[in-house]
Model the fold of this input.
Amino acid sequence: MTAPEAYPAALELLEDLAEYLPARYPSLYRRTAVGLDNLWSGEKFDTTARPLAEDPMQMCARLVQDDLAIMMERPDGQYYLVAGAILLPGFWRLEDKFGMNLSEIHTSGDVPQFRERLEKGMTNFFRRVRPEEMVARNNYFFQVDDDLAWSWSIGSEDAEHVSWGTAEKDRAIQHHYFRSERQTLRRLPRTGGVVFTIRTYFHPITEIAEEDYVPGRLASAVRSWGDDVSRYKGKAKYGDVLLEYLDQKHEEQLARGLDMSREDEVRAYPY
Done:
């Protein structure tokens, strides 16, 4: 999905990928006279035709695993979501947020403490993003279903409203999943758009809790949430089951001799 004002930025992103991917991953992509071939999928992409055969964001989405979004600054000084290829949103829908500015995106999603602590700083941060610098961050959530693309426990993707209120409470731990996004930001040098890449990692809690230190670390993180973060992340629906399990796994690790004094040596986000 690309708004007319963002078309040049989406095209710039496509051209950047066509140049970068074959150079970085020659076993997966091949540069051609008119664009590139995806050797894994067998698709051929013509990035030189005008007009393009399809939306440039759709083409970008078939080249990389990451979800993609572009924010553009308008004369009012705000950054707006004006292009996106979001296939694995989990808890939100591109059509709901498309065309919104940063503040509207976060307040419509009830992001905790956005107005009080984040709004002004985030806008200023976007203005400082440079083409030569990539910025990365991670987040994490919990799901009580196993759908990577859309967490159906919060409601149908086609429903008018979705929320944690529809989720089943206290599902067995086998239904609990850890979801983490690695997000990067970079400014496109020619058009000035800010590109988001969003790579989602999705694992059963029962799997990641087998790793040393993870159960105790996750339990501590969940217990640190304030009421607003707990509501935002749906803790009331899974917190009791999740924490009981994590505490049990942590105790098992301690019983077999886990050395807590070494935890900082092996600490790595998000586990």
